Amino acid sequence: MFKSCGQKVIVGRGASIGSGATIEIGSHSGIGRNCYLNNVVMGSYVMMGQDVLIFPSNHNFSDLVKPMSKQGAGEIRILHIEDDVWIGSRVIILASVNKIGKGAIVAAGSVLTKDVPEYAIVGGNPAKVIKYRNQSNTE
Fold first, then answer.
1. pTM of the predicted protein model
2. Residue 26 and residue 48 in contact, taking contact as beta carbons nearer than 8 Å
3. pLDDT digit string, tens, across residues 58-111
4. d(CA 122, CA 75)
């Protein structure tokens, strides 16, 4: 089903994963219900809430004579999600994002337009760093 898949992986009902040939998932990770993804390399212990949308490319739109629907898609990228990442429900990850760093948290409902640093907690539209996880965090 996937290019590679670790142990104890959970895929929620209704998830749309394309052919699966461009998806790699580490052990103990999960894809939430009704998620849409393709071209993803996911580490271990990744939690993904429901209704997450990951877009691997954008539409081309530079030709003003040709309708946008006839211009095709831009470059397809692979999203790298490192280990121990939590992606909340209804997050939208745009094609401009290449990496979500180790230990990061993406708040529910966020729209990611750029890479997320390791251990960052990001949220909003567009998502911005709210703070960083550290040893003194107890929640």
1. 0.90
2. no
3. 889 999 999 999 999 888 899 999 999 999 999 999 999 999 999 999 999 999
4. 26
Rounded to whole angstroms, how far apart are CA atoms 59 and 9? 32
The number of C-alpha atoms within 13 Å of 112 and in the hemisphere containing its C-beta is 34
59 labelled catalytic: yes
Tokens 């052990």 belong to residue: 27
| Residue in 59, 66, 128, 131 annotated catalytic | 59
Phi then psi for residue 69, to 5 deg, are -65, -15
Distance separating alpha carbons of residues 31 and 9, to the nearest angstrom: 8
Q: Which pLDDT band holds residue 135 (cuts at 50, 70, 90)? A: low
Q: Which two tokens stand for residue 65?
A: 């004579």
Residue keyed to tokens 């996880």:
133
Whose tokens are 């993804």? That residue is: 37
Q: What φ, ψ does residue 83 adopt, rounded to 5°?
A: -60, 150
The tokens for 62 are 């530079």
Residue 47 exposed, middle or buried by CB count within 10 Å (0-12, 13-18, 19+): middle
